[in-house]
């Protein structure tokens, strides 16, 4: 059984961090398990600060892309690659239950495209998504999914 709920994320504008903080509060109100959060942005000086995960986690990331249209032309992930590097580091992807993406629905097919690409590249599911800072309903919905994942371990 997992000893704690682990939320690993990267936040650049503060939207994802706001969501993860509200999600942590929600989870703490629903379980006695400790809820840990790690903002990969705090570790990005270089990979020397990365560490091997020994417990399961859920990853959260916003969408920052350059170029492409999300359908048939290429795109380049920008700004969020430290999270990709952390997930790949020491095969951390093996402990990832899945990824939750965020973005702006105005970007149509590119909405949460980075999370979809992580899911495909690492072989874990895209668990859910939310727009910008997310709504209270998003926090509850995603929180309940996370609680079910951890209950199944």
Automatic annotation (TrEMBL):
Entries under Pfam families matching the protein = Flavodoxin_NdrI
PROSITE patterns given in the database record: FLAVODOXIN_LIKE
- Where the record annotates domain Flavodoxin-like, the positions are 5-153
- Identify the InterPro entries for this entry: Flavodoxin/NO_synth, Flavoprotein-like_sf, RNR_NrdI
Q: Supply the name of the protein.
A: Putative NrdI-like protein
Q: Which organism is the protein's source?
A: Streptococcus ratti FA-1 = DSM 20564
